[in-house]
Specification:
The structure is a single chain. With 432 residues, this protein is mainly α. 75% of the residues lie in helices and 0% in strands.
């Protein structure tokens, strides 16, 4: 029965891609977008194969852990509907009668004790909710999640295509076929929902700035930000300042675009440095604890891709001084000689591709940015995100997954700096 439900939802997803007008871009056939979605389905199957090689691997795999907990919550509706709605809404969720359900969910608590970096409950609630229409079918849950992640990527593509029209096909390949982005958003993982929410912000935010039903669309943007906050708080806090700077520049376009970004970066660093005085704990101290917790867990599980943790103090000065090595770890590791399994080899090859793009920026720089405001948004968001990942994640395998949202926007920033026409001219000359 599960296979029949899964096939039905797959057919429905493909039908929606062809019939819903939203999934269309001038100059690109819908067949290309269907192919991009099909690529994600293939990667999803590959991910299932990788993480079902043994019972031990399957038990620890994130793509199954949260789904298993969601099944517990979903099944509770048949026995005690009020318990399901209490846990889903969070209203009276501390009722002692609910602890029997909590005890059967192994991942309900925050990841490594810190909601700042990960909140398992949002993903579990999401899966328990869609189980109402998938009848608990894992395959159907996966297809819906794939479609959401694909839609997020589509919205990001559509937005950037409207700003960088001369780079349409490069954007298409970069957004839909960058290996780690495509792979890690093809499973029931938080990264899939993050990409969906970010894409939703770009789509609705863009229309709101154009004055097309702004109030309703601003409301949707706020809901998307709330979703990000409930998945990974740090992603919310890193995304909000560049978003505000982008909007600031939109309404005050005559000023230097970099100024709002600099102002909000300085403000953000000052707040982070003093966060212990008005919050539960200093943000930097939480980052250190997250790093140590992650490293200890990796050692306990004998992770093959552990690296030496970056030693830094809970101050802005120390974080800034250690940011370069954190950025290098996030962007360029694993190197080929560090890769010890197929996934890491692909990641290492991808990192070589990033180096090639950086080299192209040096050799073929653009004379003038098409959209300086968009460039500074992509750069500030991606760099800050990559630094946080580099500082807190001492496991190369995990870095390749956690960096996905940041990597996508870093590559988009690099693409804006490359003079594609100069490369085309050089290639044509060599042909002659």
């Amino acid at each position: 029965m599960n296979y029949i439900i899964s096939i039905f939802y797959l057919a429905l997803a493909i039908f929606m891609l062809y019939k819903i007008k939203m999934y269309q871009v001038s100059g690109i056939s819908k067949h290309w977008f269907a192919a991009a979605f099909g690529y994600k389905v293939i990667l999803a199957v590959a991910m299932l194969f990788i993480y079902t090689r043994s019972a031990d691997i399957k038990e620890k795999a994130d793509i199954f852990r949260f789904s298993n907990d969601a099944q517990v919550l979903y099944r509770s509706i048949k026995v005690e509907p009020s318990a399901y709605f209490k846990i889903m809404s969070g209203v009276d969720a501390d009722d002692l009668k609910l602890f029997g359900i909590y005890d059967r969910m192994n991942n309900w608590d925050y990841s490594n004790g810190s909601q700042l970096f990960s909140n398992n409950r949002m993903l579990i609630r999401y899966l328990a909710f869609i189980n109402l229409i998938t009848f608990g079918s894992y395959g159907a849950d996966l297809i819906i999640t794939l479609l959401l992640a694909f839609t997020g990527l589509f919205w990001i593509f559509k937005f950037f295509n409207s700003k960088l029209k001369q780079k349409k096909w490069l954007l298409f390949v970069l957004i839909f076929f960058t290996p780690s982005v495509a792979f890690w958003t093809s499973g029931i993982l938080k990264e899939s929902l993050l990409i969906f929410a970010i894409g939703l912000i770009f789509n609705c935010g863009n229309y709101a700035l154009k004055g097309r039903k702004p109030i309703a669309r601003i409301g949707i943007v706020l809901l998307a930000l709330l979703l990000i906050y409930n998945i990974k708080e740090f992603a919310f806090f890193l995304l909000l300042p560049p978003l505000l700077a982008y909007v600031w520049n939109h309404f005050r376009s005559k000023q230097r675009p970099i100024l709002p970004y600099l102002a909000l970066i300085i403000l953000g660093l000052a707040i982070a440095n003093e966060s212990g005085k008005f919050g539960k704990e200093n943000i930097y101290k939480t980052m250190i604890e997250k790093q140590l917790s992650f490293y200890n867990l990796a050692e306990q599980d004998n992770a093959n891709s552990s690296i030496s943790p970056i030693v830094f103090d809970a101050t802005t000065q120390s974080v800034l001084l250690n940011s370069p090595i954190a950025l290098i770890n996030s962007l360029f590791r694993p190197m080929l000689w560090e890769a010890n399994n197929p996934l890491m080899i692909v990641s290492a090859l991808e990192n070589l591709g990033i180096l090639v793009l950086v080299l192209l920026v040096v050799l073929f720089p653009v004379k003038k940015l098409e959209s300086p405001n968009l460039f500074w948004f992509t750069l500030v968001f991606s760099i800050s995100y990559l630094i946080v990942i580099g500082l807190t994640t001492p496991v190369l395998g995990a870095i390749s997954r956690y960096r996905v949202p940041a990597l996508l926007f870093f590559l988009l920033a690099l693409l804006q700096l490359i003079d594609v026409e100069s490369i085309k001219t050089l290639l044509q000359r060599n042909k002659v």
